[in-house]
Design goal:
heterodimer, A: mainly alpha, two-stranded antiparallel sheet, 2 strands, globular, B: alpha/beta, Rossmann fold, 6-stranded mixed sheet, 4-stranded antiparallel sheet, 7 helices
Chain lengths: ~280, ~230
């Protein structure tokens, strides 16, 4: 029971990261690698604030807000300096490694005995409440005029320009919201596991992508269903991990395993087409 | 009035594959006029559209709209008074958004986008009325994804989106070329209806000579970077 709940909690907290990555990769069609850096950034800032006795809720929100600045920098590199999207993100992500060590002063901070957002209540309940709030806010936001314009920018940028929209501003906004989510996820994960570590973000994009594609495989439909599918995918991913670890997978092979799962699921639509064409040809 | 003065545009300047498209191009179009642009491949028809819309910036020369110099105005600012329909029916709409969401974005062409909802009952009613004028039965499919529509239907909605807020200039870049004859006919009739009733400047690129008769319009023929008279 305990393992079940804590696996669920972990899935929920990582789903905030996955939602952030969903905004850039799927909605904006922008391969933003900043996420890995801002996840650690959120964890680092939150840990330092908690060690200094600042209120956990305030620390978590502040971590998210500072994370959105990382998105702003990537957006600046991309829209103003015209650096390719993936490269802009990588540049910010790599610089965040140094910045995060500066923030923490060392490569990890223990939160043992500190009061965190999970101190007073079950982590599962807190995680579920935060996810629900973010889910509803995102769903509302992407139905507003600005939200629709962001979705259309990812879908057909040329059209949005022809409709008189400054697409650079739309991209900047989306990147800031995405990295707000990533950093907030990092802040929550650090509090949940009781320490913040410089390697928290390493490979996290692949985890987020795996969650997104697992979610897409089980649920699809209206916009809110897509957001829910990301959360479900993230929780399911955690259970898959627990399962394969209990079957004896070496923990250091997890990243390889995750990448393979993501690669298989990402290629699924094409593989399906290929197999269908093959079987059609075989019949003829 | 749209006035083009001494417009020059050269691609790959200073390289071996330098291509001079326009060399001191001059012409003007009065408000309410419908102009067809003719010219062979590579004559610069689409380049001219892109220069007017701001996707391209000229090397030299000026573009005036109602005596305002718009030569260096960025594309998205110009789009507030320029409506465009592209040759590719997929370019004018957002496939993952619904029909009503697409139309609501077009409604905000010259307004500031805010945090109020993109769709409300009031504009839904307006969209339904506008869509029924297209006679495609789309008025009952407001919440269908744009990507599910056929090329002809998408082009009809694009035309509606380009003119739902009256632009000063409507640019039609071979907007029927990718459609089957029946859809072509439909889109041309719609075009005629939409442009007939106001002071809008319409510029249409076409290779089809029968369109000239159909719209009984002025023709600008581009050849060797100049206007052939």
């Amino acid at each position: 029971m305990n393992i079940l709940l804590s696996t669920c909690s972990q899935g929920l907290l990582y789903s905030i990261l996955a939602l952030g990555v969903y905004i850039t990769f799927r909605i904006l069609n922008f391969a933003d690698m900043t996420a890995e850096g801002s996840l650690t950034l959120g964890g680092s800032i939150c840990a330092v604030m908690l060690v200094n006795g600042i209120d956990p809720i305030l620390s978590t929100v502040a971590s998210g807000l500072l994370g959105s600045l990382a998105g702003l920098i990537t957006a600046f590199l991309h829209t103003k300096l015209k650096i390719q999207d993936i490269l802009a993100g990588i540049l910010t992500m790599i610089s965040l490694y140094s910045i995060n060590i500066r923030i923490m002063g060392q490569s990890n901070i223990s939160l043992l005995g500190r009061s965190t957002i999970f101190s007073k209540n079950l982590s599962f309940v807190i995680g579920a409440i935060i996810c629900l709030i973010l889910l509803l806010l995102l769903n509302l936001f992407f139905k507003t005029q600005i939200g629709l314009a962001i979705r259309a920018t990812g879908d057909n940028e040329q059209m949005m320009k022809a409709l008189g929209a400054n697409t650079d501003i739309k991209k900047t906004l989306a990147l800031m919201i995405s990295n707000f989510m990533c950093a907030m996820s990092g802040a929550l994960i650090s509090q949940f596991q009781g320490y913040s570590d410089i390697n928290l973000g390493t490979g996290s994009i692949v985890i987020a992508l795996a969650s997104i594609v697992i979610g897409e495989a089980i649920l699809n439909g209206a916009f809110i269903m897509k957001l829910i599918s990301v959360i479900l995918g993230s929780v399911l991913y955690r259970f898959i991990i627990v399962l394969v670890l209990s079957l004896g997978l070496n923990p250091s092979d997890l990243k390889l395993f995750t990448s393979i799962v993501a690669a298989i699921l990402l290629s699924l639509p094409n593989t399906k087409k290929f197999i269908m064409r093959r079987s059609k040809n075989a019949k003829n | 009035m749209l006035r083009i003065e001494n417009l020059c545009k050269t691609f790959h300047k200073g390289k071996t594959d330098e291509k001079k498209i326009f060399d001191n191009l001059n012409f003007s179009i009065n408000n309410g006029e419908f102009v067809i642009i003719l010219g062979g491949n590579g004559a610069g028809k689409s380049t001219l559209m892109n220069l007017i819309s701001g996707s391209l910036i000229p090397d030299d020369g000026k573009i005036f709209l109602d005596d305002r110099d718009i030569t260096n105005l960025p594309e998205y600012k110009r789009a507030k008074f320029i409506g465009r329909v592209f040759q590719d029916p997929l370019k004018g709409t957002s496939p993952n958004l619904t029909i009503e969401e697409n139309l609501s974005l077009a409604m905000l062409r010259n307004k500031k986008r805010t945090l109020s909802f993109g769709i409300n009952n009031e504009n839904k009613e307006f969209f339904r009325k506008k869509l029924s004028e297209l006679n495609l039965g789309l008025e009952d499919r407001l919440s269908a994804k744009m990507g599910l529509l056929s090329g002809g239907q998408r082009q009809a909605v694009t035309l509606l989106m380009a003119t739902i807020v009256k632009p000063k200039i409507l640019l039609l870049d071979e907007h029927t070329a990718a459609l089957d004859p029946k859809s072509q006919d439909k889109i041309l009739n719609l075009t005629k209806e939409i442009v007939s009733d106001d002071s809008m400047i319409t510029i249409m690129i076409t290779h089809n000579m029968s369109h000239i008769e159909r719209f009984s319009s002025r023709v600008i023929k581009l050849e060797n970077g100049k206007v052939e008279v």
